[in-house]
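lol ok so funny story. i was supposed to be doing the assay writeup but got distracted and ended up predicting the structure for this chain instead. priorities right. anyway since i did it might as well share w the group, maybe its usefull for someone
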Amino acid sequence: MTPMSPATGRSRAGSPAPMVVIVGPTGVGKSALAVNLALALRGGLISADAMQVYRGFDLGTAKPDAAARAQVRHELVDVADPRHDFSAGDFVRAADRAVSRLREEGLRPIMVGGTGFYIRAFLGGLFPGPRRSDSLRERLRARAGSHGPAYLQRLLARLDPESARRLGAGDTQRLIRALEVLFLSGEPLSQHLARDGGGIWKRPERYDAVKIGLRMEKARLVARLEDRAQAYFDAGLVDEVRRLLAAGIPPTANAFKGIGYRESLAVVRGEYSEAEARRRTVIATRQYAKRQMTWFRREPGLQWLAGDEPGENMTRAALAIIGRAG
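and the output, tada:
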């Protein structure tokens, strides 16, 4: 192991210190640990959250509050206009720039978040498919709006059945991307991925990274998620959705697909009560946390810590892992 200089975050040989990546299900305590590590390591945080990028979508995304932002530099929070989709490719490019900025300023990059596909795409890189076409995406959305929510999956099933089998009818963003790749390149996404030699899971990682996962005993995490979902509504999530709509954010925006936002949008439309929205949000949050853990169990090289531990114990354990890695 190459000795490190705590003052500069570089090895004595001059190479950058490994960046730190903190993952885990929603509500497990990733953000608090990341702030503690940034303070201890003179680091800056890069949010890997598909919703925190959108400006104005605040209450339902668990964005860092003003106190956390005053303590530690946060990147990739409030960087995207919610009128436009922010894709995994957008994230990778923005995160690359954030890493460079932080290192130029002498700060150690610490990526933290629960959007596993974004993190894997950042570390392994995306396949070199065609860049997105906003005009094509709008046409596909319009067709889905006129033909019903299952239209995109039916279309993809005719043209690229293998990709269609992997994607649910409600996964609009990825269905559109699969169709976009097909129409722009003339080749199904499944063939692109087959040539890619196993895809993002098997590519050499682009960054030297220490990866730490947080997990928590199921009953305790479920109780925490229920409290968290209820707190979003108590803080005025439905009113936030009304303000966003009044500001001109279309209800079809991808940002409104986030948990809590789609349920609140249904309240505004009169489709069901706020009590029902709360109930559905709790269920969806629990299901999402389960999917996150399924994804992160596949992430290579993760070292797991118990999110049940007191914050100072978790921080010490994480610093020990980082210290051993150099």
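The CA atoms of residues 129 and 181 lie 7 Å apart. Confidence is low (pLDDT under 50) at residues 1-12.
back to the writeup now i swear
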